[in-house]
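Figure 2 data, in text form.
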Amino acid sequence: MDARDDTFRLAEPADLVAAMYLLVYAQTAIDLGRMVRLIARNLIPGGRFVTYTLHPDFDLTQPAPRLLEQFGFDIQPTGAGRADLVIGDLRVGLYQWSRAEHEARLEAAGLTDVRWHPLALPPGDPELARSLAWCLERPHCVVLSAAKP
């Protein structure tokens, strides 16, 4: 299935659509809109879309070597708003979208209550907080959610 398919419908709409790094594969704003419309079309009223995606404020021009050290992958810039996700020998192209573009496409698809959920650590583990402070200061990803009214 192509996530940009303008006709795809589930046999029964879902109450939740969760996606990990889906929207980063939209090469154009039109593709981004098509992906989001597919999701909205397949949600029940009151359903939610939740996605983990490349943070719109992450500076792709700055190296982030700790991603590789701590998480086993790297994000390497390849052009304006573009990067490669690098895991070992695997390279996959990613596209970075602004907050405004995300929100405009979600709203155009009929989704509301758009929320950005910054990364947070569970309380009570000071060692974890110390080891990942760099990631929270310059997050490469964020959780985005929206609802179908």
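Caption note: The mean pLDDT is 94.
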